[in-house]
Give the backbone structure.
Amino acid sequence: MTSPGPLAQRLSAAVRSATTVETSGVEPIPADDREGGPGSSFTLWFSSNVQFSSLTSGMLATAAFGLGWAQALLAIVLGSAVGAAAIGITSTFGPPKGVGLLVQTRLPLGRRGAAIPAVLVFFKACAWFAVNSILGAFAVQTLIGTGFGPAFALVTVAQVAIALVGYGFIHLVQKAMALVLPLLFIGVSLYGYTESDLGSGFDAAKAGPLGFVGAFALVVAIQAARALSFSSYAADYTRYMPVDTPPRTLFLYAFTGTWLGSVWIASLGAAIGTIAFIGTPTDLVGQVLPGALATVTMLALGVSTITSSCLDCYSGALAWLIAGVRMARWQAVLVVGGLGSAIGWFAGQGDYWKSFENFLIVLGNWIAPWLAVMLVQRFLVRGAPAEDTPRDFGPGFASWLLGLLAAVPFMSQPGVFVGPIAESHPALGACAAAVAFLTAGLLHYVLTRNSRTRAATRSTDTSKEIHA
């Protein structure tokens, strides 16, 4: 009997390693356990953006906000670039310390302060798990002709199972999906682009008081927020990479994968939105796609939502542990899966569409100032006094909170809350996340700079006393 060759042996070893249940929690990954290269960030983020929520977010641009397809494409390109840049940058936070970004949040925000965004990330992950579970269930329900309950159970169990195995298996699944999903989506892409009205113009009636500028800015904000929401996860999927992983290369792989997947599927959604308003995957079958193509598309949508939502389950579990809950990682995965499933089950019985836009915008409002604090801490704060044990609340917590408060007048979630500036000037309602980002970043830079100045002054005074 012929023994397997070196390539087969390496592949077999890689598969065994990837399918071994991960035992690590949120503690730093030892140098001896580090492996993998930056290329896996491309496949992970590309696959994660080739999904129905990307399609629906793009569809909002034309079907709900009245942009023409070319106008929507430009907004999608810009918004996706902002979100992809956030994922690219935060991906580089993983290899140096071997921990996720939320763990590193403890230095600028403090131990207790960092627990608050960790809790928010946990609930955000549960909410995304619910959204994707509903969409996946609709697709599976249409595909196999079963009721919502069995389809929902199949989708949620698959998502939780992938997250339970952990980091290596998630990367393995996403690598496979980076090959499979383009093949499955190519048919609906060709049909959607050729049958839609790509020459459509701006529809002022759909945009309403937003006008063209407001509608365009809102599409940019929604696209940025959708990808931006993943930025709190990004370092979770690079923390096992070697410490000497080149940051620029890692950034380029993560950015490119995110941007390509987002622009492709969102622009396809915008194209379909010129001919029909699609609320669920089932509507694609009834209003847009012919028989055989519809079947393939339902398969693609079902698979893509499962492979995307497993990230929410995995990273939501890590966030729960960082928030201070004492349990094993696998137990935290079950908590996210259970709570997300409960939310999805009740939401899936009605019409989820009306809350989808607000959900995406709210994500950007609180993540943007947190991200600004982390970027300033990483790239602009130099010479800060080292703290082995961060205080309960650091200057970054005040910066994050004040940045969020500064954005309140600009917030616009119709039916929930509309700030005074957004109410009087609807076109500015898409600026909330940008205001929060800039305010928090500037405040954190000023506060930490003043802190370093005081520390340097104390050090100089102490030195003078010693030598006096």
